[in-house]
From TrEMBL:
Membrane topology according to the record: Multi-pass membrane protein
Name this polypeptide is given: Transport permease protein
GO molecular function ontology, one term from the record: ABC-type transporter activity
GO CC terms of this entry: ATP-binding cassette (ABC) transporter complex
Keywords linked to the UniProt accession: Cell membrane, Membrane, Transmembrane, Transmembrane helix, Transport
Cellular compartment(s): Cell membrane; Membrane
InterPro entries given in the database record: ABC2_TM, ABC2_TM_bact-type, ABC_2_transport, Nod_factor_ABC_transporter
The keyword Transmembrane appears for this protein: yes
Domain ABC transmembrane type-2 per the UniProt entry, residue ranges: 37-263
Protein family per UniProt: Belongs to the ABC-2 integral membrane protein family.
TM region positions: 36-57, 69-93, 114-142, 148-170, 182-200, 238-256
UniProt keyword Flavoprotein, yes or no: no
Amino acid sequence: MEAIQSNTSDVRIQNHFFSDMGVMLGRSMRHIFRSVDTIFTVTITPIAMMLLFVYVFGGAIQTGTANYVNYLVPGILLIAIASGISYTAYRLFTDVQKGIIERFRSMPIAPSTMLWGHVLTSMVSNGLSVVVIMLVAMLMGFRSSAGILSWLAVIGILSLFTLALTWVAVIPGLTAKSIDGATAFSYPLIFLPFISSAFVPTKSMPFVVRVFAENQPVTAIVESIRALLSGQPVSNTLWVALAWCVGILVVAYIFAMRAYRKRA
């Protein structure tokens, strides 16, 4: 009898996975709408950085392009996303400290839907931040000759990058001992674009720095997005960028689910 009840409960959970995930997404989104300032906080620093580099340093940086803001935008978008995911770790850490995870685990819902609620909320909030930054970039003179397929490819890369980093954020959100510990992981991610081709071409860097810059994920992702937005051929760089994103996503998801099961 207990086995039958257990199987019935499992079937119910599987059948209601997406509806449960929708409820969790709605819960997390309400937190976002109650503190919209978090979205503006995430966008202010990248926008200020974009203004600084375009109007102060732009004239001294040789990139081989006529419009430096076009060169700069992909890296700024990645910095905004890396900054935004820290709020996912913060919100998840808060749920852990308040015992929300244990409370949801005691209910007949799919166990992973709580995590997916936070992850999808990160996708939405970071998407809004990207839109705001793109609007500001257009006011600063950003122009693109990309077609609809290229724009869809850019959206896909940014979404995959956000998804991968969000699952990275889930790990400290579940395992950190303090709020500072939960959010500190994002600092190296924010700094990583500075040692890439996001701001200057890698050929201007010292040899050791150039080797690192040319073989880290941000450079491949930035150059893929830059090529797509400018209507240039992407070649193998796109596949390298996708491989980095998928690899990070798979590894982060495995460790995040392991941390979740251990915490629950």
